[in-house]
Amino acid sequence: MKIARGRGLLTLEQRQDFMQIPEDEWILGTYFTFSKRDLEIVNKRRREENRLGFAVQLAVLRYPGWPYTHIKSIPESVIHYISKQIGATPSSISLYPQRENTLWDHLKELRSEYDFVTFTLREYRIAFKHLHQLAFENGDAIHLLHECIDFLRKNKIILLAITTLERMVWEARAMTEKKLFNTVSQSLTNEQKGKLEEIITSQHPSESNKTILGWLKEPPGHSSPETFLKVIERLEYIRGMELETVQISHLHRNRLFQLSRLGSRYEPYAFRDFQENKRYSILTVYLLHLLGFKFAPRIRDLSDSKLFTIDKASEYPKLEAILRGQINTKVIKENYEDVLRLAHSIREGTVSASLIMGKLGSYSRQNSLATALREMGRIEKTILILNYISDESLRRKIQRGLNKGEAMNGLARAIFFGKQGELRERTIQHQLQRAGALNIIINAISIWNTLHLTKAVEYQKRSGRFNEELLHHMSPLGWEHINLLGEYHFNLEKVVSLDSLRPLKLS
């Protein structure tokens, strides 16, 4: 089989992480627990080491999916788990690889008995086609490699060397990106392409040491009326490029977001080194992303809120003090089909909710669609208030949601004690960097707590003294057991698997 050479994606440590067998009870139970038929096939071998070796070969083909000869290390706990099922001595595994022919004979028998498939050019093409489609949604190489391995494993295709899988992912991603770049570039007019070239080559009139793109990407700085006017100036410049006509609505939102992030990272000189299609595509998606607005409204001062009625307010004399007015049902009926089309577009991802909110917010109050949505919003708000007043379980549910938010805020305050918990950076970029670092630590604590809580719950369930109702009152945001003082180090070269946790402290 001849497969085109490509590029590696992983470091040596990452490759080892992909191929290691985690000492996890779920993995053991799912992949390494043998059925009656499995045991019958395993026990056809006379020698103890051959029975254990054959069983281990079967286990590693199921997970992680590579042949036994590719796996450098198998945890002792896994060997013990398998040997206990077949009645073998764990140490006999050391005698198994003495005859290479035995290894290959067993692998051949496993392919025959369990329909495992050898990775040939045909399987390569099938997996490549699958990856090619996935890459239109997500171009992250690690994600695609995980998806590739899962796909092959589910289809019982024996994995080749991980470097071969890396090359396949790289080629599938490169082909997808080429199609994406061509799609965006072909929808640009020559005039639009000229404007894109201008922003990476021409200097800004008032910023002689910066290109126009550098000016557009410059952080706005501290909040002030002057800063606000500068932001408006940049938005108006981007709008003047008339990029809204570019046909990208059919592309997946995740992919567009990834392209926009690339655009935010590259400097103007880097764009000049790209091929035209790639340069125009990333610039276009990035600039369109800059035009987006996000709104996060919430109901405040619920006790002061007023209710709306379908009928005349005068028909509810006892509630007149808390009634605000009557719903305009006529405008809802007249625009209902447009409202449904709008809801469908948002649900299908054709248009983002934030973009619609921005558009509607710019319309005059006389716009019929905006009026209809406002009237429907009043109905929903009235129903929510009435349900909240009459439904105790709903109030508890909302309170639990608030408690979760407060728990996260409490954890954030506990971590962010430096400089008295204040953001003292003047620029928005530096403030965002500090806030981002805080979120990383919060997420790390949440993941760590979740994993250990899961192990603790599993242990309690096995012991038979766990109350399921307690799950509703558990949270991964506690920090009393964590020493928050000291320095935080993030070594990306030594990424530890989430499966390699310390044992629970049961005393």
Automatic annotation (TrEMBL):
<feature type="domain" description="DUF4158">
    <location>
        <begin position="9"/>
        <end position="172"/>
    </location>
</feature>
<feature type="domain" description="Tn3 transposase DDE">
    <location>
        <begin position="286"/>
        <end position="488"/>
    </location>
</feature>
<dbReference type="GO" id="GO:0004803">
    <property type="term" value="F:transposase activity"/>
</dbReference>
<dbReference type="Pfam" id="PF01526">
    <property type="entry name" value="DDE_Tnp_Tn3"/>
</dbReference>
<protein>
    <recommendedName>
        <fullName>Transposase</fullName>
    </recommendedName>
</protein>
<dbReference type="GO" id="GO:0006313">
    <property type="term" value="P:DNA transposition"/>
</dbReference>
<dbReference type="InterPro" id="IPR025296">
    <property type="entry name" value="DUF4158"/>
</dbReference>
<dbReference type="Pfam" id="PF13700">
    <property type="entry name" value="DUF4158"/>
</dbReference>
<dbReference type="InterPro" id="IPR002513">
    <property type="entry name" value="Tn3_Tnp_DDE_dom"/>
</dbReference>
